[in-house]
Amino acid sequence: MNNISKILLVEDEPGLVMTIRDRLEEERYEIEVAEDGEVGYEKALKSAQNLIILDLMLPKKGGLDICRDLRQQGVETPIIMLTAKGQVVDKVVGLKLGANDYMQKPFEMMELLARIEVQLRKKTSEKKNSDSGVVGFGDIEINFQSIEVKKEGETISLSSKEFQLLKFMVENEGVILSRDQLLNEVWGYDAVPSTRTVDVHIAWLRQKLEDDSRYPKHILTVHGFGYKFVG
Fold first, then answer.
1. Going along the chain, which residue ranges are E strands?
2. Ramachandran angles phi, psi of 103, nearest 5°
3. Which domain-ending residue is among 66, 98, 131?
4. Within a 10 A sphere around the Cβ of 119, how many other Cβ atoms?
5. What is the DSSP annotation of 183-222?
6. Residue in 147, 230, 161, 153 with CA at minimum distance from that of residue 202
7. What's residue 86's pLDDT?
C-alpha cells in the first residue's frame, strides 16, 4: 500500500514540512505539500489523495475551515489534524467537523506513521465493504443489498424505517446528524411524524444492536445536536 498511497501535507512550518516529507518519502509514500490554507484547500479539492495531514493554524485559511468545507463539498479523504499543545476545544471541533484523527505537536514520527497506516487500512476496508454491499462493526454485519442485519451471526429483525435510519447513519459515519435531518432523510420532508419519532426509533435500534442500550458504543447521542454513528 505504501508505494501507491498519496498524502497531502498542509503545513506552514518549514522544519516540520521537511521532517514529515522526508520520513514519509522514506516509507515510499507520494507526498504533495501546501504551505498555506488556500493552496491546501484547492489541492485537496482538485487532486486525488489517499490521506490529508492538516495543520490547524495556517495562513490564509485555517485548518478547521478547510476540514469543514471539504466535507461539505463531499470530499471523504481521511484527515489527520495537527494541533498545538492545549488546543482541546479546537480538537473537539475538528473531529465534529469531520477530521478522522488528530495529533498534538510535538509528536513522534513513529506515532504519525502508525496513525497514517490505521486511516489508510480503514479506508481500504470501507471501500471493500461498500463494493460488496456489506458493512461490519463490532459484532454487527449489515448487508445493504439483501437488506439483512446480523448480530453475532443471528439475523436481527428491523422494520423498514429502522433499517433506513441505520443505513443513513452508517453511510454518514462520524457526522453529527440532527433530529430534523434524520426525519427529513428517512421519513421525508412532508412526513407527519415529529422529531420524537426519531428518538423512539433510535432507542429501538439500540435495544436490538447495542450490547447495552443504556451505554451505546455505536449509535451515540450528541447532546444539544442530535446523533452520531461510530463504527
1. 6-10, 30-34, 51-55, 79-83, 101-104, 134-137, 140-143, 148-151, 154-156, 219-222, 226-229
2. -130, 140
3. 131
4. 20
5. IIIII-TT----HHHHHHHHHHHHHHHSSSTTS-SSEEEE
6. 161
7. 64
Q: Check which CATH number belongs to the domain holding 185 and give it.
A: 1.10.10.10
Model confidence pLDDT, tens digit, residues 175-216:
788 888 888 888 875 555 677 889 999 999 999 999 999 999
Please indicate, yes or no, if residue 1 is contained in any of the structural domains: no
The DSSP letter of residue 57 is S
pLDDT of residue 162: 94
Within this chain, do residues 193 and 80 fall inside the same structural domain, yes or no?
Answer: no
Structural domain boundaries enclosing 170: 133-229
Give the integer Cα–Cα distance in Å for 91 and 3.
30
C-alpha cell at 182: 434524520
Contact 47/32 with Cβ under 8 angstroms? yes
Number of domains in the chain: 2
d(CA 16, CA 230): 32
Write out pLDDT tens, residues 61-93.
999 999 999 988 888 889 999 988 666 666 677
Neighbours of 118 (CB within 10 A): 14
**Is residue 106 packed enough to be buried (19+ CB in 10 Å), middle (13-18) or exposed (0-12)?**
exposed
Are 156 and 125 part of one and the same domain?
no
**CATH assignment at residue 45:** 3.40.50.2300
84 and 144 both lie in a single domain: no
Tell how many helices (H) and how many strands (E) occur in the chain. Answer: 8, 11
Residue with cell 479506508: 123
Residue count of the chain, please give it. Answer: 231
